């Protein structure tokens, strides 16, 4: 694994983390205080849907799509 591969992965994980915070912030802004379990569900949905989504869009890191 090269340094370039690690940097590419790190950027995607940073984007994923940012999306989690934005989605949770929007949900809290709309619905007010939400429970811990709703937070966990939101995190799970974002984390498990991110990889298939970026693969479909064609912007996945090379390590994820076997390039």
Structure overview:
The chain is an all-alpha fold and 67 residues long. Helices cover 82% and strands 0% of the residues. The protein has three helices and no strands. It has helices at 3-31, 36-57, 62-65. α1 crosses α2 (36-57). The radius of gyration is 14 Å and the shape is elongated.
Q: List SSEs in N-to-C order.
A: HHH
Number of β-strand runs: 0
Q: Between the first and last Cα atoms, what is the distance in angstroms? A: 13 Å
Provide the structure class. mainly alpha
Radius of gyration over all CA atoms, rounded: 14 Å
Output mean pLDDT. Answer: 91
**General shape:** elongated
Major sheet, described briefly? Answer: none
Low-confidence stretches: none
Strand content: under 5%
How many DSSP H or I helices?
3
What portion of residues is helical? over 70%
In short:
By secondary structure, this protein is mostly helical. It has helices at 3-31, 36-57, 62-65.
Layout of secondary structure:
Elements: H1 3-31, H2 36-57, H3 62-65
Features:
67 residues, mainly alpha
């Amino acid at each position: 694994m090269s340094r370039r591969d690690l940097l590419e992965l790190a950027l995607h994980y940073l984007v994923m983390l940012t999306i989690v915070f934005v989605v949770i912030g929007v949900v809290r802004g709309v619905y007010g205080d939400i429970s811990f379990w709703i937070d966990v569900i939101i995190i799970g949905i974002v984390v498990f849907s991110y990889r298939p989504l970026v693969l479909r869009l064609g912007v996945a890191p090379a390590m994820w799509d076997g390039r």
